[in-house]
Amino acid sequence: MDQFGTLDNLLQEERVFRPLPQLVIEANVNPQELEAHRRMAGHDPLGYWEEAADELDWFKKWDQVLDDSDAPFYKWFPGSRCNIVYNCLDRHIETYNKNKLALIWEGEPGDSRKYTYFELYREVNRVANALRSLGIGKGDRIVIYMPPLPETVISMLAAAKIGAIHSVVFAGFSAKALRQRINDAQAKLVVTADGFYRNGQIMPLKETVDEALVGACADCVDSMIVVRRCKVGVDMTDGRDFWYEDLIRNERNISPTEVMDADDPLFLMYTSGTTGQPKGIVHSHAGYMVGVHRTLNHVFDIKPTDIFWCTADPGWVTGHSAVVYGPLMAGTTTLMYEGHPNYPQADRLWNIVAKYGVTIFYTAPTMIRMLMRFGIQYTRQHDLSSLRLLGSVGEPISPEAWIWLYKNIGRNECPVLDTWWQTETGMFMISPLPISLLKPGSVTKTLPGVEADIVDRDGNPVPAGKGGLLVLKRPWPAMMTGMWNDPDRYREYWEKIPGMYFAGDVARKDEDGYFWIQGRADDVLNIAGHRIGTAEMEAAFGAHRAVHECGVIGVPDTIKGEAAKAFIVVRPEVEPDDELIKDLKRHIRNELGPVAVIKSIEFRDNLPKTRSGKIMRRVLKAEELGHEIGDLTGLEDED
Ligand code: PRX
């Protein structure tokens, strides 16, 4: 099964799955209520979102639900005062949730920590005080370069509590990628760990930050907080680096929650685009909290007894909305696992499900494909009967993977909720609810209050069954509020197809109005559910001494969905050989980190280019996959 096999299957898939009656009876939102939500959102979308906002706590309510006078710079809930952390922690402390488990964490070696809402609240307050003592305040940027540890969540919440803006950088990124993000954000502080456990090994982390900060690089950073995870030796720079435990030891348990304006940024999340420079997507307190709260509650039907496990790393938007902010606002118990799914053996995830009685398991197709490859014998070693809902995100899920999950993990009872959204959207946009009729491989319909369509390049709707561009036709509360340092790049999302938000995806809608996502329309690869731009990879290759020119394309990969293939023209004095291939792969790992998976490298004498000198990746891809090359007008050398 490759990516294109998947697409073919998607086009043919006709199976439907109905929810079990018991699920419908017990659902927080039953079919009649969902219909009522849709009707209301259809007539009065702002009223719909206002009602959603009323479910949260505010220091001051809004003057208006949406100010669209400066579109596409939409302002949600202007005039309001709030703080998302108040809704994640403070308000639970005043209810029976106070002593409920907020966070369960399991380390790869098998150690585990649990925090009640009160304990998490207390810890966040202490770290908030520590941050303030280091001179961090409202509007300052903090980069969190951490593996999945409780301190990652605590640092995010502490930053937001004091009005600072966090930017979590995935621990798999290289020193160079980290430096680029620190510089763009002009971060004053970095939170990191000495190392973490992955696949039975200790991966050093602090030294990567040291490398990122070397010399005058990233000299915006005044201090670093280091969590002692693996007790490995690290170099601490006097006056700059502080151990987490030393900093909070004497801190008090209360630190005031900063009162934020609706549009004050909550976090930056860097994601890949079509140029070499990652984009700093900005999300702000008010709209993000309303959109994430409503959609997570609806889609995952959160109940007081749930144990919610989203396997995403906090370094991605999924980790923000579905590991930290969404579950905590909902008052549920969120679970986090530090390590590799295959460690010490391939039943690790099922061991965790059984051990903690996980009820909702939300993961990515790349993980499902890996689990499928391990084999079902591992799933049978554990009692998975606590599970009631399954979820998927990040890339199209093939019907085979969907059915495998439904059958082997979900006992033919647990709906698979395939949620379509993006870093930019902040919240789920197109997704079923547990009561929905499901078609494997389809993300079903838009959630109430969201309007999406499939259009051609001019913005005209295309008929049912035909592929086209997936657009959003109306602003939504959790939408990004801007692009850090780059308003023009934000505007581009709304200008490619005037008046609509173009998400970058190709999709189709069937006769029942169900959406089927087919993949990216632009030069962005989706490797194991992680976005990475071909331009970013080409720039990284270009920095290698042997490379004269380079073109990168995505090719199908059985486990990762997609991986990169590079076509390289070497400098005249270089003789390409296997050693060079190894060296180039090593180089890319150093430049970008293990996220950028290179499947193969091919040396060429020249690359197809337009007359203006742009490398035509489309031609390379068509050649590679044996497709029609299409229109070559404009090619520099048509031979
Ligand atoms: O191509 C779509 C794919 O992931 C992209 C967004 O990537 P990112 O911003 O990293 O966020 C990933 C997690 C929210 C989209 O443009 N994508 C996301 N969810 C799905 C998906 N493709 C198919 N089905 C999905 N459920």
From TrEMBL:
Record EC number: 6.2.1.1
Q: Where is the Acetyl-coenzyme A synthetase N-terminal domain?
A: 38-88
Keywords annotated in UniProt: Acetylation, ATP-binding, Ligase, Nucleotide-binding
Ranges for domain AMP-dependent synthetase/ligase come to 91-483
Per the record, the domain of life is: Bacteria
Give a GO biological-process term: acetyl-CoA biosynthetic process from acetate
Q: Which GO terms describe its cellular component?
A: cytosol
Q: What class of enzyme is it?
A: ligase
GO molecular function annotations of the record: acetate-CoA ligase activity; AMP binding; ATP binding
A UniProt-annotated Pfam family: AMP-binding_C
Q: Where is the AMP-binding enzyme C-terminal domain?
A: 536-614
Instruction: Please name the InterPro entries in this protein's record.
Output: Ac_CoA_lig, ACAS_N, AMP-bd_C, AMP-bd_C_sf, AMP-binding_CS, AMP-dep_synth/lig_dom, ANL_N_sf
What the record says about family reads: Belongs to the ATP-dependent AMP-binding enzyme family.
Protein name as catalogued: Acetate--CoA ligase
